[in-house]
Amino acid sequence: MNHIDPEHIESFEAYLEGDLTTEERLIFEHRLDAEPDLKASFSSYKQLNKALPDAFERKLREQLQQTDAAMPPVARTPVKNIRPKRLYWAVGIAAVFIGLIIGVYQLRSENRIFDTYWQPEPGLPVTMSEERSWNPAMNAFKQRNWDEAETHLMELTSDTASYFLGVVAYEQGEILQAIQWFDSVPENSVWYSKSQYRKALLFLKRNERERAAMILEQIPEIRASSSLPVSALLKEIKK
C-alpha cells in the first residue's frame, strides 16, 4: 500500500462522497490522470477506507478481551453488576477509537480546496521550443527531477524561469521560496496571472484565507486565463 499524504484525505473524502462541484470534480480527476503519486495515494486511501470498519471491529473485540482479562475477579459479584461494568468499558474503548479515527479525518478545508485547484503544470513543449537552452530545464521538469530542473532554470534569467522556479520550489516543499518566486514575476509578463493564482493558493495552504482572497481579487479579469478558475476559487475561499 502506498503512502497516503494526510493533506489529501479531505479531498479524497469529498470526491468519494460526491461533495465536489462538477468543475471541482473534473479538476480533481484531471489531477489524478496527470499525477501518478496522487493517483497511487488515492488508490491506497480507497483500500484503507474499505478495510477500516472490519479493522475497527476486530481491534475493539481484542481490546474488550484484554480488558476482560485485566479486570478483578467477579465470581462473587452479582450478574446484574457485571454487565453495566463491561458496558462502560466497551463504551470507553469505543469512544477512544472513534476519537482517533475522527482525528485522522478532521483536516482543514484549506487542504481540500488547495488539492482541487492546484492544477499540474505541464511545462513548455520542448520539441517546439525555439530556445534550445530551455530543453534541459524542461526535460528535467517534465520528468519531475526537481533539483536538476532548478539548476537549469537558475541559469535562465527571465520571468518564465521565475514562474517555473516557483513551481519547482513548491514541489520541493519550499512554500515560502515558491511564493517569493511567483511574486517576482512582473505584472507585464504573460505568466503574471498564473503566478498570482498559484501564490494565492500557497497562502491558502498556509491558512491565510484573507490574503489569498485579496491576491485573487487583484488578478486582472481580462488577463486571467480561461484555464484558471479564479472566480470559482475565490467563491470557495469566501464561503
Descriptive notes:
It is a single chain. By secondary structure, this protein is mainly alpha-helical. It has two domains: 6-109, no CATH class; 121-237, Serine Threonine Protein Phosphatase 5, Tetratricopeptide repeat (Alpha Horseshoe), CATH 1.25.40.10. Helices cover 68% and strands 0% of the residues. The protein contains twelve helices and no strands. The longest helix is centred in the first third of the chain and has 35 residues, at 36-70. The two termini are 35 Å apart.
Note the main attributes of this structure.
239 residues; mainly alpha; Serine Threonine Protein Phosphatase 5, Tetratricopeptide repeat; 2 domains; 12 helices; 0% strand
Count the domains. 2
Q: Remind me, CATH topology of the largest domain? A: Serine Threonine Protein Phosphatase 5, Tetratricopeptide repeat
For the termini, the CA-CA separation is 35 Å
CATH architecture of the largest domain: Alpha Horseshoe
Task: Please give the count of helices.
Answer: 12
Structural class computed from helices and strand pairing: mainly alpha
Number of strands: 0
- Determine the CATH superfamily of the largest domain: Tetratricopeptide repeat domain
Main sheet makeup: none
Helix and strand element order: HHHHHHHHHHHH
Low-confidence stretches: 74-89, 102-107
Nearest-integer average pLDDT: 77
What Rg is obtained from the alpha carbons, in whole angstroms? Answer: 25 Å
**At the first level of CATH, what is the class of the largest domain?**
Mainly Alpha
Overall geometric form: globular
Q: Beta-strand level of the residues, as a percent range?
A: under 5%
Please give the share of residues in helix: 55-70%
